[in-house]
Design a protein that fits this description.
This protein is of the alpha/beta class. The protein has one domain: Rossmann fold, CATH 3.40.50. The protein has 11 helices and 8 strands. An 8-stranded mixed β-sheet has the order 3-4-2-5-1-6-7-8, sandwiched between helices. The longest helix is centred in the middle third of the chain and has 20 residues, at 180-199. It is globular, with a radius of gyration of 18 Å. It starts with a strand and ends with a helix.
Length: 286
């Protein structure tokens, strides 16, 4: 199952949520992959640039093609990434590499990543002009037998890469910080998502809106959430508090499930993961 986190508004925690939900998925025993499509590379930095990181895992998944060798888990040493994946779609190659060869291991069991690169900015125009919008979907089809869950991080813009992700995904999560600007962004974005669903990906499900950096004692966030619900928007029950612990996890490049498993925010993230997983598994029964 492929899940994308998307919001055109910046600063709502897409990269942090992508990495932490994926890390929880992996910690629960699901083979999990993160796709970083943001040229800021925040998800890649978070999961790969660990200080004194251990050796690459010896017992990662072994794809049927046996093409996945132990990967280096330092971002500055990785050359096979999303830029390389997209580059081979617009240049002639005698042998095109399968998508699995662009995967890199992280130091965390069951968790791998295809890291991003600033070079994606340079490829953007060429990919658009050659109508390669479905290449990511085709590439991820090759990975469905290798991973139980795939999480895609996107830039805060409806550009070529985020559109590619929404076309490839089964489900979409929408993080928001609970203010008036975020609510207006939700309205605008829902229109775009409806068009993408109609024109490109009828199977795309809006999994729900995540109330991030939620302040329980403040009136405005709860008012905005209740109004969105009354208008028919799906706001997930699990809410995430603001905490300096998330910034600490960025600094040491370690998701909260590994850094502070009993912290309040970690438990909220686990509750969120359980909520969306229950919803997904229930949908398979119908």
């Amino acid at each position: 199952m492929i899940r994308v986190l998307f919001n055109k508004k910046g600063g709502v925690g897409k990269s942090s949520l992508t990495c932490n939900l994926a890390a929880i998925s992996a910690a629960k025993g699901l083979k999990t992959l993160v796709i970083d499509l943001d040229t800021q590379c925040n998800a890649s930095q978070y999961l790969l640039n660990r200080t004194n990181s251990p050796e690459p895992r010896k017992n990662s998944l072994e794809p049927q093609s046996n093409s996945l060798e132990p990967r280096i888990n330092s971002l500055d040493q990785i050359t096979d990434n999303m830029a390389a994946f997209y580059d081979q779609t617009i240049t002639f190659h005698i042998r095109k590499k399968p998508t699995i060869e662009f995967v890199s291991q992280t130091a965390f069991e069951n968790l791998d990543i295809i890291p991003s690169s600033p070079e994606l900015d340079q490829l953007h125009t060429k990919l658009e002009s050659r109508h390669k919008i479905y290449k990511l979907k085709e590439g991820l089809e090759q990975l469905k037998d290798h991973y139980d869950r795939i999480y895609i991080d996107t830039a805060p813009a409806l550009n070529f890469y985020s559109l590619s992700a929404l076309i490839a995904a089964d489900r979409c999560l929408i993080p928001m910080d609970c203010d008036e600007f975020s609510r207006q962004a939700i309205y605008n974005m829902m229109q775009h998502l409806a068009e993408i669903k109609e024109d490109h990906n009828p199977a795309l499900e809006i999994e729900g809106i995540i109330a991030n950096q939620f302040m329980a004692r403040a009136k405005v966030p709860l008012k905005i959430i209740n109004e969105l619900k009354s208008e028919g928007h799906k706001v997930l029950d699990s809410k995430l508090s603001s905490s300096v612990k998330m910034r600490e996890s960025h600094q040491v490049h370690t998701p909260l499930i590994h850094l502070a498993p009993k912290h309040k925010l970690t438990l909220e993230l686990v509750a969120l993961w359980q909520e969306i997983e229950v919803d997904f598994l229930t949908s398979l029964q119908y």
